[in-house]
Amino acid sequence: MSLEEARKTGPFDVVFLPGGLRGAPNLANSALVGEVLKEQESGNRLVAAICFSPAYSLTKFEIYKGKNITCYPRDSIMNRIFESKTHTRVDKGVVEDGNVITAMGPAFTIGISLAVVRRLSGEEKANEVSKYMLLDKL
């Protein structure tokens, strides 16, 4: 299903932007992605982004402007946030600020995923998912 087709099935509880060296810039270069993100924001709904995507898409489209976000800790990527002056970069693995949840990169996929589950379904469900993922055995 294309993004254009998927968009017709919204609104969405959450829009999640994956990262990646190629993927994040491609998302940021899509006007349609920008429209979907602005629809999420105008509906006061959740947006999650990981790795390079917070620095690319959230800043470019000024989604939840003024919020704290994190991103992959590479100077050239972090500088995108500083230069945009749209958000404040926080040096943490997972950052939640209002309806935006961001994570630094691959090591934090579980953390951001559980943050989304917690936000959408509550602490009890997040703990249940964590247990089924055997995180208590780490």
UniProtKB/TrEMBL annotation:
Residues 2-117 form the DJ-1/PfpI domain. GO terms for cellular component: mitochondrion; nucleus. GO terms for biological process: glycolate biosynthetic process; glyoxal metabolic process; response to oxidative stress. This is DJ-1/PfpI domain-containing protein.
